[in-house]
Write a structure and sequence with these properties.
Blueprint: H1 7-15, H2 24-40, H3 46-59, H4 65-77
Helix pairs in contact: 1-2, 2-4, 3-4
Length: about 80
């Protein structure tokens, strides 16, 4: 059985029709990644932690460009 990541956030996305159903779990993944990153960078203000997170994702070789765009949208537009 798979663990549902951030079920309340997924419910929010679903109930407000912000993301297509098939993408909701991916957006929850990026939200969890961002929350984990922001906890370890708690001295940064909100704008800086957003940009630092995107820079961090770019530095990781395993993220494709489409994943960076998806993460950026999730963080900057939905304002986690």
């Amino acid at each position: 059985m798979k663990k549902i990541v951030l079920p309340e956030y997924q419910g929010y996305l679903r109930s407000n029709s912000l993301v297509q159903e098939k993408y909701i779990r991916f957006f929850a993944h990026w939200a969890r990644e961002f929350l984990t990153f922001s906890k370890s960078n708690s001295t940064l203000n909100h704008v800086l932690v957003d940009q630092e997170f995107i820079d961090y994702l770019k530095s990781r070789k395993k993220n494709a460009n489409w994943q960076l765009k998806q993460a950026s949208f999730d963080i900057l537009v939905l304002d986690i």
